[in-house]
Amino acid sequence: MSDAPFLEIIFHMTNGHELKFCEYDKAKAQEVLSSVRPSKFFTEKQFAISSNSSATRIVIDFVSCVVFNTSAQIEWSFPSYFEGAFILSKEKFVEAINSELENSEVVMEPGQRAHPLSLFLKLLMKDGNIWYLRFFAETLKPVERAELAKIIHELTGFHAVKPEGGAVLFNMKNVISWTTYPTALLASQKTWELKNNSNEGNN
């Protein structure tokens, strides 16, 4: 048996605590990963993890996100319009939105075939952590941009792949705020048009 687990799972709780669990057996770890459904993971009230010697119950409402550290390929499905999502460092996030944001404003013309469009998302969680994501969506008509914002607004769980392997599954109910680049707002939302002074991008 290897000294390093094939799968490490870390529950980041809203009070700042972390609950860590691991699996050394590759087949059992892959079974756990294949059972994950991001869109449904946070819909239950509690989640149970057991071993030969103990059992832990976790109240889902107090989970900010779940980190899956593994070398296994993550093959979870994404919501409509989304084609992939990746975790970025803050430095790479700022660099990307400053250099690529202009291209992200492209929208699909009538009859034009859709292709992946790079967009960016900053999440502030209840535990105080900030996560920076790049995600890919279909090239959208302006009317579909509002639909994309609605999907983000209504998500219960959303995941992004880590650069070193594994993924992070976010409990969207415990997101304090999210910032999208470029703008993706619900048409019915009341907004104040102010400059974003959070040191990210040309806002």
Poorly predicted regions are none
In helices, the fraction of residues equals 10-25%
Assess the beta-strand content as a share of residues: 35-45%
Q: Which radius of gyration do the C-alpha atoms yield?
A: 18 Å
Number of strands: 11
User: What are the secondary-structure elements, in order, as H or E?
Assistant: EEHHEEEEHEEHEEE
Order of strands across the main sheet: 2-1-5-10-9
Q: Tell me, what's the shape?
A: globular
Provide the residue-averaged pLDDT.
Answer: 84
Could you tell me how far the N terminus lies from the C terminus, measured between alpha carbons in angstroms?
51 Å
Briefly note the structural class of the backbone.
alpha+beta
3D architecture notes:
The strands form three sheets. This protein has a five-stranded antiparallel sheet. Strands 6-8-7-11 form a four-stranded antiparallel sheet, with helices on one face. It is built from four helices and eleven strands, in the order ββααββββαββαβββ. The mean pLDDT is 84. With 203 residues, it is an alpha+beta fold. The longest helix is centred in the last third of the chain and has 13 residues, at 142-154. Helix content is 18%, strand content 36%. The protein has helices spanning 26-34, 38-41, 90-100, 142-154; strands at residues 7-13, 18-23, 46-50, 55-59, 63-70, 82-88, 116-125, 130-138, 157-161, 167-171, 175-181.
